[in-house]
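Reviewer 2 asked us to include a model.

Predict the structure of this chain.
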Amino acid sequence: MTAAIRNYLLEIRPSAIGLTLLLAGLLIAFFVKYRREMAPRMGTLEWIQNYERPRFTLNGVRHTMERKDLMPLIILMAVYAVAAFINLGSAEAPQSFYTFTEEKDVVELDLGQRETVTSILYYTGLYPGEYDVFYSANGSNWLRLRNENPGQNESDAAMPQSYADLFKWQYAKMDREQIQVRYLRVAARNLPMELGEMAFYDENGALLDVSAVDSVLLDEQDTVPEEPSWYNGMYFDEIYHGRTAYEHIKNIYPYEITHPPLGKLLIALGVELFGMTPFGWRFMGNFFGVLMLLPLYVLLKSMFGKTRVALCGTTLFAFEFMHFTQTRIATIDTYGVFFILVSYLFMWRWIAAPYDAPLKKTWWDLAFSGLAFGLGCASKWTVVYAGMGLAFLWLLRVILKYRAKGLGSFGLELLGTLGLSVLFFMAVPAVIYCLSYIPYGLAQGMTFPDMLVSRDYYDTVWSNQVYMLTYHSGVDQAHPYSSRWYQWVLDQRPILYYLHYGQEAKSAFGAFNSPLVAWGGLGALFAMIFAFWKRRQAPAVLIWTGYLCQLLPWVFITRTTFAYHYFGCSLFLTMALSFVFDELISRRSKNDKLVFGVTGLELVLFGAFYPVLSGVEATVEYCLSFLKWFPQWPWG
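Predicted model (structure tokens):
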């Protein structure tokens, strides 16, 4: 027995080991069944396929949506929307902020009478810094509240507001158990700074009634939560992307400029609709998480032509762990994956059109593919990797159509295709990308539309590209939840987004793949190799192309990486499983029971792992006994 296996057996509960082995055994049995089903049947001539394989073609292999697809798709999207929007985040948070400036660097409060205060809760706004808190019981004798035990890089300020703690509720650091207060002064050490709200608690832990006090810091007491958490404040990279969305709305030059602007602008739409609240800054990502089920269903139906396959494949992705968790956080990865999916949908429609279809009937598929590619690039650079796959698929289509039609009948169309492709995949994305920087120009005092012909504007765009490239190439700091590509493939190392221990339970969640999709999808990818060798199905080319283009670049990238970088691959793992589903049902219609069973198993896993996907409290014993399948899974 190796040391690794011995340590695994010592660290993991037998019940969790049993569940891991059970799922692995079920997946092995599934693929054994698949292999047997696809083997040549006795008494037939199917064995000939081992020697005479069909010619690969892209000629008219796409299918169309049907009326019977509408209701299953609507129901699935509705069910998932309910699951995704429940407990997404608080729709209440302070909206009025006191801005500390050189002219207003102190705010004073009069509680109306002397109060015993045992704790102070405050809601941070924009800009990092620190606040000093002075208090007095009579207005004459003033004392300063101190942080009695400052950390290594902390000062003795009672109310810190670090860049990692913006738009969060926090407790002031008090150097005594209780203070006698009527008058309070809050002074900002750094300018400018924003403070949203304060709340005071008496010796019984009850919230003091300050409704009679006229102050912007005490005017939204109905937003004060019972306890600070991810539900009512920012967590993980929301402190960058959610903050930047707010800055775009306020016409402030953004703090986070390590990614293109469009993703943050989309987050800002949710803030405009629902306010600067957790629900508001998470709304658009979650909405896109629901919305992406539509193009995925259409793509699966177009590739395989079966409602059952499209429904089961889309359900797998809907309740795939990474999809659920990652779309509920206000970061930009969701938009990148969404636009990758849409660009591949329309590229499939274009490459799988009949060879005799004229360009005037197919050009709009190229147009929408290029448009989605451009929107994706303006959201996150990882979409560029998908562009390599789009280029490969485009070239494959051109070569096959040229071979089928010859230069005489295809030459003129080829020239038109080249011209339109340059327009849709280079010019249009470039325009979209540059236009996404309009908020940067406005924040620098430029005016629209004059800025679009200003050299200063394009200098801003270019300098940001240089900065992003320099920044990302230098991200090598150690992180406790970082991981490498080979760990993503095996689902070994989630990234923990939040952890809080309560009295009897804990709240913890992070980003990782469903083991069924991660392991089953990997098996399906390899199964596709043999299936393609024998049967030459066109969908296999798109699926493998998309997967490799999302994975291979990370093999050579040496910067610090995380499990959520595998999010794009989750799409193609789901498609690979859908490929196997299609083969099983095509072989024998009764195999749909097996396909429905695998899909149902994914729903069971989603329900079991829901606490570590959503932040819902669960007992430590439950997490250790049933959810901690590997030592690196941080649920213990």
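The chain is about 50% helix and 10% strand. The first strand starts at residue 98 and ends at 100. We have added this to the supplementary material.
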